[in-house]
Records
---
Amino acid sequence: GAPTRHVAIDLGASSGRVALGTVQDGWLEVEVLHRFPNGGVPVSGGLQWDILGLWREVLHGLTLAGQRGVVASVGVNSWAVDYGLLDAHGELLGGVHHYRSPRLDGVMERVRTDLGDDAIYEATGIQFLPFNTLYQLAAERPERLAEAEVLLMVPDLLHFWLCGAKATERTNASTTGLYDPRTGDWAWALVDAAGIPRALLPHIVEPGTDLGELRPDVVRETGLTGTRVIAPATHDTASAVAAVPAGEEGGWAYVSSGTWSLVGVESPRPVLTDAARNMNLTNEAGLGGTTRLLKNVMGLWIVQECRRAWNADFAALYADAAALSTGGPVFDPDDARFLAPGTDMPARVQAACRETGQPVPQTPPEIVRCVLDSLARRIADVLDGLEAVTGTPIDTLYVVGGGSQGDLLNQLTADATGRPVIAGPVEATLIGNLLVQARAGGHLGGARLRDVVRASSELQTFTPSSGPARAPRAGTGQTVGEVIP
Ligand code: ADP
Ligand code: LRH
């Protein structure tokens, strides 16, 4: 058939991009038109996103896309949990708070005590993380909530600015801690118990929903005409998981690697067992009614903040870190002390090693190596936990996202997990976003989404380098993950 063109806007916590995707005969070509930095803005003792600055970058990217010709559709995805509040006139009320804002200090603890952990987890199946939307709303000033007519998650807010629709797309709704993964609706009893006005929460729509046409002001600004706004899987991690280049073989897990390392499996249904809760696992919505059963691991955030502190040449740093010997100190990267921004991040890493009686990394390469070793170790532990919770062996690990460019972390992850790591695509989120739009427009034919990803991406495999790190699995009668060096 004739090629169609779609624009994906991917806003990550550390950077954003606008890309043009061309789809033809089960093949996707992606061209990134515009990249821009993103991050928290410290203001008035809090931390916010520069949402208007991001919107300006989006408009600029759309203008570049418009210069290339006809664009069938556009869709936005972003990081999860954060939102804007609109008043009755559709005006944004104040700013968009950052999920690492100190306004959340102590709030989750209070809400957990008030509502009870059982009630919260049974209703939502979401990992207890201090920034879930449930807790953020508890930190709102009552006046701001009273003035608000509707809450829109960040991608939904941008869709509203693009086309005027007020809807919440399902995958991102599922990150809020206000969503029931079994009913697929808001967790109304919990919403009521938390004192959140029901009317704040818009109706939930599926990924692939046509939200309408561009508003006249956006058409004027960008030069795009005839372009539809189609919701992708608006949670960046959902789009990334949709673009994991796995076949139909089963037995695989993924790491969506960027600011966070989202480590999980795709499950046909939510898992809200005691085992899942004890592991503090998240059940987020994926494409086609699947569940992303995963865990938030602190991720490359720790390295990003070290980098900010040092202002160093990172290629050289990684090379020096790779030359260090194995068996160095490791710490728990999910310790809450690493959540907040700060140029004292290297000191926090050192303190964590010191407190556990290990050698304290001193130089930047030693510290980076220590962080990567710790992430790899943590990913391995989460995989073992996921196997135990689901009863399904994990033989292969797919790593997608910006972090999949890090050869050192990929190799350390293969070594720590004892599984082959298949790295790429780097722009999985953009790809997932584009393919959902293309499919919604009827431009993918019957092609399986992940087959298109595989056909269109270059992947790299990392093999565990030392002996069989894992024991033979009971019951399967075979050794899995054994690698001949
Ligand atoms: P997010 O969507 O959370 O902003 P990305 O998926 O864009 O994150 O990934 C950004 C991360 O990718 C950075 O923190 C950086 O550590 C990592 N990264 C990017 N390029 C490289 C590279 N060449 N080598 C190693 N890591 C890289
Ligand atoms: C990754 C991500 C992750 C969320 C976090 C807030 O960008 O969306 O899935 O938990 O940001």
Note: The chain has 18 helices and 22 strands.
---
Amino acid sequence: PEVALRSGSARPMPAVGMGTASFPPAPGATKDAVLAAIEVGYRHFDTAAMYRTERPLGDAVAEAARCGLLRSREELFVTSKLWCTQCHPDLVLPSLRETLKNLQMEYLDLYLIHWPVALKPGPLTFPKRKEDAVPFDFEGVWRAMEECQRLGLARAIGVSNFTTRHLDRVLAAATIPPAVNQVELNPAWQQRTLRAYCADRGVHVAAYSPLGGQNWDGTGSNAVLESEVLAGIAKARGKSVAQVALRWIYEQGVTSIVKSYNKERLRQNLDIFGWELTDEDRLKISQIPQKKTVTAWGLFSQEGEFTSVDPADLDIV
Ligand code: A2P
């Protein structure tokens, strides 16, 4: 299954995509995992300048084309993202060109602003202090994103980690409105306010950390994979907890960007079609307490200065 995007000439976005954020970067493992993913049927890949996985993703795609796993680039939906240090009007196009060079591709299907935070131009690093941020010229940066689409280098453009407040600003400046907002979203962090806002404005929502993320903060807990509610539903349906989470996301009309570097789990995560949750399952999932699941990332965390949390969503159960 796929969803058509409102703007751009991107091919429709397959409802499940493979994420490639893995720290520290492991180019060999990324390349192997992407090849395994292509083999088991993934046609949607998500990367970012920040992840340093553009190159191994591009290498894997080139190899897949060489050995006949893919007929052409056109079969794929590829997303990448503009990092905070690149969020300056005159750096957008050169950053996209660099991304395309890394990927060995002529165009992206979707180019996103990674965070609504601008940092001084320089290496692709995380901000350490609030003072590292510089004023974000939303209008200028969005115009440059629009130019990328007009030039055909990005078939659609969008944003990531934007709250309704940030989206208001971009929508007010946009000639081409953002096609997508990619945010952290899963049964334990459902973001209903944000989703309703996006639905009203034709912005498609994509979910990262659909399984609760990769234990970024080292606490060893995961509100999705360890959810008793989801475990009960999984048992009753004869599915895995991951499949229940991904199926729920799909039923909400949201695309999942799910990361696994394991072939069996890659296969499992794609196998969420042809069955449904029941109304009772959906009701139970709607009652899961809500909290942003990725708790690391300092300034980007729930309490952080650059949080992507809409306070309204914290109270919704
Ligand atoms: P692995 O790569 O070893 O499969 P996210 O929510 O960000 O997509 O996080 C996915 C995390 O959960 C990864 O660390 C991944 O590890 C793991 N994972 C992915 N698919 C499954 C699955 N079907 N069951 C259990 N864990 C999974």
Note: Residues 84 and 197 are 24 Å apart (CA to CA).
